Amino acid sequence: MTSTPFLAVFTSPEVQLPELTSYLSLDGIHVPNDRPYVWQNAVTSLDGVIGLAEIGCTDAGPIAMKHMEQVKGSLTDWRILNFGWACADGVLVTGANLRNEPEFDGWFTRFQDLQNYRQTNLKSPDHPLQIIVTNSGELPLDHPVFQRVDLKVLIVTGGRGSRCLAERGKSENVVVCGEDVVDLRQLMKVLKESYQIQTLDISTGGAFASDCLNLGLIDEVRYTLSGQICGRVNSQNQQRPVLFPNVRFNWVDRPAGLGNPLIHYLGIRAVDEHFVFVRGRVEYR
Ligand SMILES: NC(=O)C1=CN([C@@H]2O[C@H](COP(=O)(O)OP(=O)(O)OC[C@H]3O[C@@H](n4cnc5c(N)ncnc54)[C@H](O)[C@@H]3O)[C@@H](O)[C@H]2O)C=CC1
Ligand SMILES: Nc1nc(O)c(N)c(N[C@@H]2O[C@H](COP(=O)(O)O)[C@@H](O)[C@H]2O)n1
Is 210 in the pocket of ligand 1 (CB under 6 A)? Predict the structure, then answer.
């Protein structure tokens, strides 16, 4: 049994398995009957920015300060994210992930020790199911994630998106949930019942994750708080993507009886002077 301190310092930026399993233990989680157990993982600036959205720089790397060699905590953030991918039956991203990261070839762990943990301890298949959600169907079908023979990829869309994909010759491994937009509750049900997904990592940007939070579909959050303050607009005066762009907690389209999300912190970690890592259970009060 691993001990799980509430507050601790990781002993090294290349945080090792015992500290990862202690921080992110899934012991005792409750998998709902009608959907997977779901966590969101994201790195955010202190002012909630999750991507700088500058020309030629649309991924999350700069928020995690991956480009700054002296910032060791970016490796910790990357290990935490990769540990989530190692533990998950499925990883869910959106069309935006594919469009913004044309060279990234899939959401699976890049670390051998975490891959060994997945296969030996968890006895999971080599890689999590890659679940790509799109309303429009406008996916770059030449993206590397579709080229890898070792990855199982599922596209989830609505009727409109499926017609767009079919016109472009893509109908295999496409699941339709909803008509104009994807019905997120139906999506979760299908993942659990038809694809046996018990644990789901949401590695999307803020728009999709906020919609899930709004519907009470996220059980836990794992946030890396980067010590940056980015400002809301890029150099072209366009809005940068943020962690909570569209949480509509008081709107009438919320499920009856579902309260606002309240994060109940389960663990707080630090590693160097640039980041704080928090893990929390989402309660809907
Ligand atoms: N800092 C971080 O941890 C992360 C940052 N990013 C960055 O975030 C930016 C994108 O941010 P967002 O626009 O907030 O991304 P998002 O990943 O939430 O994607 C928005 C897209 O997802 C789809 N979508 C959104 N809500 C949906 C719904 N309810 N049903 C079906 N489809 C839905 C639509 O196609 C929409 O264009 C990029 O720059 C990306 O690199 C992406 C992932 C993680
Ligand atoms: N928490 C977190 N930390 C990072 O450093 C990230 N990059 C992300 N984003 C997710 O990681 C995927 C690959 O990102 P890079 O291309 O390596 O920046 C990206 O698609 C997001 O799902 N999250």
Answer: no
**270 in a domain, yes or no?**
no
Percent of residues, the chain, with pLDDT higher than 90? 89
Q: What is the pTM (predicted TM-score) of this model?
A: 0.96
Half-sphere exposure of 6 (CA within 13 A, CB side): 4
Coil, strand or helix at 242: strand
Task: Specify the amino acid at residue 58.
Answer: T
pLDDT band at 251 (very low <50, low <70, confident <90, very high): low
- 178 in ligand 1 pocket by Cβ < 6 Å? no
- Hey, what are 51's tokens? 């991507």
Which residue range(s) make up the domain with 153?
37-261
Written as one string, the DSSP assignment of 213-239 is: HHTT---EEEEEEES----SB-TTSPB
Establish if 149 belongs to a structural domain.
Answer: yes
Residues 6+ apart with CB under 8 A from 80: 15, 20, 23, 24, 41, 222, 224, 277
Residue 68 lies in a domain: yes
Give residue 209 CA to ligand 2 midpoint distance, Å: 14
Residue nearest to ligand 1 atom 8, measured at CA: 205
* Two structure tokens written together for 128: 């999590």
Q: Which ipTM did the prediction report?
A: 0.96
Q: Tokens 């509509």, residue?
A: 248
* pLDDT tens profile 211-235: 999 999 999 999 999 999 999 999 9
Provide the domain count of the chain. 1
Whichever domain contains 80, its CATH number is 3.40.430.10
Q: Is residue 179 part of a domain?
A: yes
* Ligand nearest, relative to CA of residue 100: 1
- Give the number of the atom of ligand 2 that is nearest the alpha carbon of residue 203: 22
